[in-house]
Design goal:
The structure holds 2 protein chains of 2 kinds. By secondary structure, chain A is mostly helical. Chain A is built from 11 helices and 2 strands; from the N terminus they run ααααββααααααα. Chain A has a two-stranded antiparallel sheet with strand order 1-2. In chain A, strand 1 (about 130) and strand 2 (about 140) form a beta hairpin. Chain B has helices at about 5-25, 45-65, 85-100, 110-115, 120-125, 155-170, 180-195, 220-225, 240-250, 270-275, 295-310, 315-335, 340-345, 395-400, 405, and strands spanning about 35-40, 75-80, 105, 130, 145-150, 170-175, 200-205, 230-235, 260, 285, 350-355, 355-360, 365-370, 370-380, 385-395. The chains are: A mainly alpha, B alpha/beta.
């Protein structure tokens, strides 16, 4: 029972963090029509900036939680305006190649700035160590990760359903031309959405920094997991992304514990099953 | 999903571009220089390993050039990124030899890459000196006339680990390792050797092999803790090892009274990343420990390396550094850079290296060299890492299986 509960919590934690990253990827695809390979690089930048601010700069963790995602969002605005803008409306492979190139550039830039070694960030005081409140030992910091992810999820949901800006974005996602016709400033919406996605990727990077090793290449791994999440959940679906992220999180947590010899293939089996039985993803809409 | 066509497309484009640039390199001085081709992981998660090797090679080349070169010729280094992939490494080796006209290849971090590349080396007719990849096969069933290894392999390290394990007196052993050849082979050899030394040990069925690059090790840590072992062999390395240690610390893994053996835990990049957070009292192994060889070559090497790069040399730096000196000695013995003659000279050669006197065994081309194991002890502000105390250097003779056992036929 304890080991079941521990695995459940672990799956929730992995899944919720993946959700924060993958939902940005999904929103960007929905509005821009771009599959953003560089998303993993933005996540990595969030982690590295946290390292610079906290481990090098001596700042507490909390200001880094605000500053690092903001800095990455600003960088994203520049990237969108100067680079990404040129491939809208072209074939999807163009944007794939472009964002893949961006990922490689970010990887190399990170290596040039921070070196190729492994860096760590210490969790803030109060979130260190483990708690036995549930009858088994579990890291305190993991509860913080889940809390942040749930807060982001709730805020996003409110934003998309309750605010004018959120509805404008949804309109632009459904029909860009119509949105333009009725007076929505679509280019501005696009920039905003890209910045929002980048902000979330970087936020996940900041939150991950105190519990994971920071090194070049950390963005490549997370982008593959994020793609799996989007494929399982369905492109363009917000609840689908959550479902996909939780499914993958549980695959990792329960698979690692109870079927360790299958831990390499399980995520791909899950993805293949979804593709075979529900090609549009668990909650994706069938198109075309 | 796992393999995007774009990745291979982009790689192809990059390779094509790099090849073109390589061909434009000046050829006029080619006859004068001795060209060393380094093949290491220079990008991605494990890029630190390639970086260390590059520094070791550069330091050795600089020293050699300052003291007159090899046979009066200057040494130049060309590095290629293997990306940890077999096909990329094979391409890199061919490019270095056929276009860059390298006289020798030095390199290889990944066992998978080594197993794939080694069978193609004889057709290049240049010696390859492996400085890191530890798979027993390249000096075992895949051995060939042109392939040599100066670094400790899995058998040697696991023989030493089994001796350390035996001395702890613990009887119930399990493992946590990366889910590929290195993790599985480490456990396989450890079991075999420990059983030989201590027939009544219990080698548990409950083992954990998380995928290489897993971000979250919690499920594996939990399941191993629940199995209540007494001793644990851990062969995770690099970023995985840092992730693992931090997550395991949080779960109280290091407070259970286990004897823990990290097979490549004394890698300086891991110790530097962990700093004071590295748990005290665990056993860590390494192919080379900068603080445990009291000889002049090592003292000079560590001093020069610290001055130049501001951190202590890792085992990969030492391996690359020593490999270039080994090559120098072989060329001087052969009197030529002809690949076949140098390969013949390398077989059976003895070198005074930073980690002591090592001999390249003629029968399988594996260096008779042992690892260093030690317990993690106090933090050193000078080096920015926790040091080892006690430290034990194993000699090549006491940990190397016989040539017959390796399956190599030369």
């Amino acid at each position: 029972m304890e080991s079941f509960l521990a695995a459940l919590l672990n799956g929730l934690e992995i899944g919720l963090l993946l959700f924060v990253i993958a939902v940005g990827l999904n929103i960007i695809f929905g509005v821009l029509g771009v599959i953003n390979f560089a998303h993993g690089g933005l996540y990595m930048l969030g982690a590295y900036l946290t390292y610079t601010l906290v481990s090098r700069g001596g700042l507490p963790f909390w200001p880094a939680l605000l500053l690092a995602p903001l800095a990455v969002a600003i960088l994203a605005i520049v990237l969108e305006r100067l680079v990404l803008r040129h491939v809208y409306g072209r074939h999807v492979t163009d944007s794939l190649l472009l964002t893949f190139a961006l990922l490689l550039i970010i990887d190399d830039a990170v290596r040039m700035i921070w070196g190729s070694g492994i860096q760590v960030v210490t969790p803030p005081p109060g979130l260190r160590g483990a708690t036995s409140a549930l009858g088994f030992s579990y890291p305190v910091y993991s509860f913080f990760v889940m809390g942040v992810a749930i807060a982001v999820m709730a805020a996003l949901w409110l934003f998309f359903t309750r605010t004018r800006a959120g509805r404008v974005i949804r309109a632009a996602a459904i029909d860009r031309d119509m949105a333009q016709t009725i007076g929505i400033n679509v280019p501005l919406v696009i920039t905003g959405v890209f910045a929002l996605g980048a902000w979330m990727a970087a936020l996940a990077g900041v939150v991950a920094a105190p519990m994971r090793a920071i090194n070049p290449g950390m963005g490549d791994r997370i982008i593959i997991d994020s793609f799996i999440v989007v494929v399982i959940g369905g492109l363009g679906s917000f609840p689908g992304t959550l479902a996909g992220a939780l499914v993958l999180g549980m695959i990792y947590a329960f698979g690692g514990r109870f079927l360790p010899e299958l831990n390499l293939v399980l995520p791909y089996i899950g993805m293949a099953l979804v593709l075979l039985l529900r090609p549009q993803g668990l909650m994706g809409r069938r198109t075309g | 999903m796992a393999k995007f066509p774009v990745r291979s497309l982009a790689t192809a484009a990059v390779v094509a571009l790099a090849t073109t640039v390589g061909m434009l390199a000046p050829q006029a001085m080619a006859q004068q220089q001795i060209r060393v081709g380094g093949i290491y992981i220079m990008s991605g998660t494990a890029a630190a390993y390639g970086q260390f090797a590059k520094q070791g090679l550069e330091l050795a080349a600089e020293e050699i050039n300052k003291s007159g070169g090899i046979l009066g010729r200057q040494v130049t280094i060309a590095m290629e990124d293997s990306q940890g992939k077999v096909d990329v490494a094979i391409q890199a080796a061919r490019k270095l030899v056929f276009q860059g006209r390298a006289d020798v290849l030095i390199g290889l971090d990944s066992s998978g890459v080594a197993n794939g590349l080694v069978p193609t080396v004889p057709e290049l007719r240049k010696p390859l000196i492996i400085t890191h990849a530890a798979t027993p096969d390249v000096t075992g069933k895949l051995c060939n006339a042109y392939t040599f290894r100066i670094s400790v392999n899995v058998n040697q390290n696991m023989m030493a680990a089994a001796k350390v394990a035996q001395e702890t007196g613990k009887k119930r052993w399990t493992t946590i390792g990366p889910d590929y050849a290195f993790g599985h082979q480490s456990w396989e050899y450890f079991q075999e050797y420990l059983k030989r030394l201590e027939p009544d040990v219990e080698l548990m069925n409950q083992v954990a092999f998380p995928r290489f690059g897993a971000e979250d090790f919690t499920p594996f840590i939990n399941s191993i803790m629940q199995a209540k072992p007494e001793g644990i062999l851990i062969s995770l390395w690099g970023g995985d090892l840092v992730n693992f240690i931090r997550q395991a610390r949080n779960l109280g893994f290091f407070d259970q009274g286990y004897e823990i053996l990290f097979t490549v835990g004394a890698a300086t990049e891991v110790l530097a990343a962990m700093g004071e957070e590295m748990p005290e009292g665990v056993w860590v192994g390494t192919r080379y420990w900068f603080g445990s060889h009291d000889n002049e070559i090592n003292r000079n090497f560590v001093k020069a390396y610290m001055e130049r790069y501001k951190n202590p040399p890792s085992y990969n730096a030492e391996g690359a550094y020593a490999a270039l000196y080994l090559y120098k000695q072989a060329v001087e013995k052969a009197g030529t850079t002809d690949g076949e003659a140098v390969a013949k000279a390398l077989a059976g050669m003895t070198l005074e290296a930073p980690n002591g006197r090592i001999t390249i065994r003629a029968g399988d081309h594996q260096a008779l060299v042992g690892p260093t194991w030690g317990r993690v002890a106090q933090y050193s502000p000078e080096y920015g890492i926790r040091m080892l105390d006690p430290v034990r250097n194993f000699s090549g003779e006491e940990v190397t299986p016989s040539v017959e056992e390796t399956g190599c036929k030369l």
